[in-house]
Amino acid sequence: MLNRLASSISSLLDARADGHALPAGLYTRSDVFEADMDVFFRRHWICVGLECDVPEPGDAAVIDIGKTSLILLRDDDGEIRVVHNVCRHRGSRLLNPGKTIVSKLVCPYHTWTYELSGELSYAPHMGKSFDKECHSLKPVNFKSISGLIYVCLADNPPKDIARLELAMTERLAPYDVPNSKVAFETDVIEHGNWKLTMENNRECYHCSANHPELCVSFVDLDFGFDPETLSPEDRAQAGEHLALYEERILQWTADGYPSAAIEQLVDCETNFRTQRLIISGAGESQTPDATAASSKLLGTMTRKDLGDMHLWGHNSWNHFMGDHAIVAIVIPISPDKTLVRTKWLVHKDAVEGVHYDLEKLTNVWVATTDQDAELVARSHAGVEDPAYVPGPYSPFSETNLDKFATWYIDRMRAHGY
């Protein structure tokens, strides 16, 4: 049965034309969704949360990924742990979804009790021969990369995450993400396939027509344009913008803030891109007027003119600015439903109403996420239509979508599909 499914999916992979969107079945079919969950959300590194989700010993957060449930927690020694949310007795869930505070992990079924390190400390009526040391909670492979928590559910995680870790450890150090706090968090269910969610985020071809709030501070030309379709005035403006990028990247780097683009998008296992982007307008932050939302800057930052340290992976996107950060995590729910969990981070000592206004802090990305949810739903409805034929990507504005589709096909084939 598995071989037949793999063969069926393989024919869809073979049908994808270079430079074009994916065949409909790769977005809509249940068997493809299950394969995606196995390949991309079990065998690859995925971002699931933040150290500051669990700031104090005893803080715990449950994260569900398909049928897998994880507990992200901080133990009694202040160390981050990630364990499976599965009791070693008869499999009961230990904690309910969401965040909580615990002194120990106690199974509600038969009161098997685990230390925050995962060690089984109490299992009543199991007899003298029972070995508690053999029944600790199952740990999960994870890395904290400057406060971003990545997990891999496979036994042998991809090793090429090392390049992401090296790049972001240096680039995120001044923001001190572990010592930030979550000022606001939203969960939005997009009615579309997770790949449509990621594709939508990887291009700004649609931005000027759909994201008026974001375009105050975000420059859509940063992700490609066709110079032949621009007026002479717009072409000159685009040239000036590219020249400004070269100047800013050199200056930022000279000042000790690495900024040039680093890409690992094809011929790899761990997919990511990072670059320091120019913020338009007032140039400080992604807010309604492009000025900083918080007067207390992140970490050791002393400047508001360092742009947007952008990072994306295959299930996340992030924007780190002097005053605050946006972290978005994508978790598939079904072939046509995707959770987008967005967190707004500020300095741990920043006080709402004193250092920042919550409406100003969240306005741009609340609006952008809602707008994107509508676009993804429209896209999914279109790929379900019998009239759908995969169209060509723009060679100027959608090159990263072409790379994502190529990477997706390659990784599926690498895992036997």
TrEMBL record:
Xref: PANTHER family: CHOLINE MONOOXYGENASE, CHLOROPLASTIC (PTHR43756:SF5)
Taxonomic lineage from the root: Bacteria, Pseudomonadati, Pseudomonadota, Alphaproteobacteria, Hyphomicrobiales
The species this protein was found in: Neorhizobium galegae bv. orientalis str. HAMBI 540
Residue ranges of domain Rieske in the record: 45-151
Official protein name in the record: Iron-sulfur cluster-binding protein, Rieske family
Coiled coil: none
Pfam families named in the record: Rieske (PF00355), Ring_hydroxyl_A (PF00848)
Keywords: 2Fe-2S, Iron, Iron-sulfur, Metal-binding, Oxidoreductase, Plasmid
Co-factor requirement: Fe cation
Gene Ontology MF: a single term: iron ion binding
